[in-house]
Design a protein that fits this description.
This protein is mainly α. It is built from 17 helices and no strands. The longest helix has 30 residues. It starts with a helix and ends with a helix. The relative contact order is 0.15.
C-alpha cells in the first residue's frame, strides 16, 4: 500500500484544481458589461445575479455539510458535475434577468457551494499537522481562479462571446469534477492512524455540537468579522472592473489585467494568513485584518478624489489580501475552536454569514446607481472596515472568558 503521507499531496493537488475551476464565480465581474450590453440588463440586475450566486453558494455549502454525512463525497461530486454544467450552459440561453438568477445564480452558485464544503471537509483531515497551511493552500486555488483565468475569459469574450466562454466552462467543470470524484474521499480509520497527528487544538478533545456552537459567544464575534470583511471583499470583486472602466475610464484589456493582478492577492492572502495563524493565533490576525483593510479602503476612497487608478488598485490588492485571510481562517477557526467531529455541519452554519455578506455587492451597486459614481459606495465600505476593526478588538477578551470554562 502506497504511503498515505505521500498520497495526501495528490488529494490536496486535486482539490486545488477543483476549487480553481469552482472559483470562476469570482470572475463574474468580467462578464458584467458584456451581459448588460447583450441582454440590456441594468447594473442592479447584474449585481443581484452576483449576490444571489453567493447566497446560493452559502445554501449549497450549508446543505452539503449535512448531506456529506450521508452521501459519499465521490457520489456527491458526480451529481454536482451535472448540475453545475447545466447551470453554465443554460445561462447562455437566457433572455430575462430571472432566468439568469436561476441558471447562473442558483444552479451554479448552489453547486459550487456543495463542492466547496466537500473539499474543506475532506482534505484538511489528511493534514492535521499542517492544518493552517493546507487549508490556506487549498482555498488559494479557489481564489486564484480569476488571476489564472481572468484574461483568458476576457480574450474568450472578445473572440467567442460571453456565451461561448460559459459553454466551455460548463464542459470543463463537468470533466474536472468527474475525474476528481474518483480521487477525493474521506480518510479511512487505518489512514487516520497512519497520518501525522494534530499538534494543537484550542481545547483538547472538545467537539462542539451545532447547538453548542450557536450558543458560543466567540461564534458571534467570529461571524460578525467574517460578514464585514467578506462583504467588503465580495463588493471589491463585483465592482472593481466597472469602477475602473466607468470612474477611471480605463480600457477593457488594461482593466482585466489590473483585476487579475488584484485577485492574485486574494489567493496569496489565504496562504499567508493561514501560515500566520499557525504561528500567532486568531486574536492578533483579526486585529491585523481589521486595521489593514480599513487603511486600504481609506486609500481607495482618496483615489477617487485624485483620479489615481494606481492607488485604487493598490488599495484593492490590500483589501483582497485581507479578504483572502478572512476566508481561509473561517474553516481553520471552526476546526481549531470547535473540533473535527461535527466540522462539516458547524462549518455549514457559518454560511449564514455568507448569506448575509452576499447581499453587500447588491447594496453597493444600488448606491452606485443612485449617485452614478462609485465614490459614495466606497465610503460605505470604509465604514464597514472600521466596524470590522472594532469587532476584532472584542475577540480576545470574549474568547479568553469562554475558554476559561474548560
Amino acid at each position: 500500500m502506497e504511503n498515505i503521507k505521500t498520497r495526501r499531496w495528490l488529494y490536496l493537488l486535486t482539490a486545488i484544481i477543483v476549487l480553481l475551476f469552482m472559483g470562476i464565480g469570482y470572475a463574474f465581474s468580467l462578464f458584467v458589461i458584456p451581459i448588460e450590453k447583450d441582454l440590456g440588463f441594468l447594473r442592479t440586475q447584474t449585481s443581484m445575479a452576483f449576490s444571489l450566486c453567493f447566497i446560493s453558494f452559502a445554501l449549497g455549502s450549508f446543505t452539503g455539510g449535512f448531506i456529506i454525512q450521508k452521501v459519499k463525497p465521490q457520489s456527491l461530486m458526480k451529481i454536482v458535475a451535472m448540475t453545475l454544467s447545466f447551470g453554465f450552459i443554460a445561462t447562455t440561453f437566457v433572455t430575462h434577468a430571472w432566468q439568469l438568477y436561476f441558471t447562473y445564480s442558483m444552479c451554479c452558485g448552489f453547486s459550487i457551494g456543495v463542492i466547496y464544503n466537500v473539499c474543506v471537509s475532506v482534505i484538511p483531515l489528511y493534514f492535521q499537522d499542517k492544518i493552517g497551511f493546507a487549508t490556506g493552500v487549498l482555498l488559494m486555488g479557489y481564489a486564484m481562479s480569476t488571476t489564472i483565468f481572468g484574461q483568458i475569459c476576457e480574450y474568450g469574450v472578445t473572440i467567442l462571446s460571453w456565451q461561448g466562454v460559459f459553454r466551455i466552462l460548463g464542459v470543463s467543470m463537468f470533466a474536472i469534477l468527474m475525474i476528481a470524484s474518483f480521487i477525493i474521499h474521506f480518510p479511512s480509520s487505518r489512514e487516520i492512524n497512519t497520518l501525522p497527528k494534530s499538534n494543537k487544538t484550542a481545547i483538547e478533545s472538545i467537539d462542539y455540537t451545532p447547538v453548542e456552537l450557536v450558543k458560543s459567544k466567540t461564534f458571534y464575534i467570529f461571524i460578525s468579522i467574517y460578514i464585514l470583511l467578506g462583504g467588503i471583499g465580495m463588493s471589491i470583486i463585483n465592482h472593481t472592473v466597472p469602477a475602473l472602466r466607468e470612474d477611471f475610464l480605463l480600457t477593457t484589456t488594461f482593466t482585466a489585467a489590473i483585476f487579475s493582478a488584484i485577485s492574485l492577492f486574494n489567493g496569496l492572502g489565504r496562504v499567508v494568513w493561514g501560515i500566520l495563524f499557525d504561528k500567532t493565533g486568531a486574536s492578533f490576525i483579526y486585529r491585523s485584518l481589521g486595521g489593514l483593510v480599513s487603511i486600504a479602503l481609506l486609500l481607495m476612497v482618496f483615489s477617487f478624489h485624485f483620479q489615481n487608478w494606481l492607488s485604487f488598485a493598490v488599495g484593492g490588492a490590500c483589501v483582497m489580501f485581507c479578504f483572502g485571510g478572512s476566508s481561509s481562517l473561517a474553516p481553520i477557526l471552526v476546526r481549531y475552536l470547535y473540533g473535527d467531529q461535527y466540522f462539516s455541519m458547524n462549518f455549514s452554519i457559518t454560511n449564514i454569514g455568507t448569506l448575509i455578506l452576499s447581499t453587500t455587492p447588491m447594496f453597493i451597486g444600488s448606491i452606485q446607481m443612485r449617485y452614478d459614481q462609485y465614490f459614495p459606495s466606497f465610503v460605505v465600505l470604509l465604514f464597514f472596515g472600521i466596524l470590522a476593526l472594532l469587532a476584532s478588538l472584542l475577540y480576545k477578551p470574549i474568547a479568553s472568558r469562554e475558554l476559561q470554562k474548560y
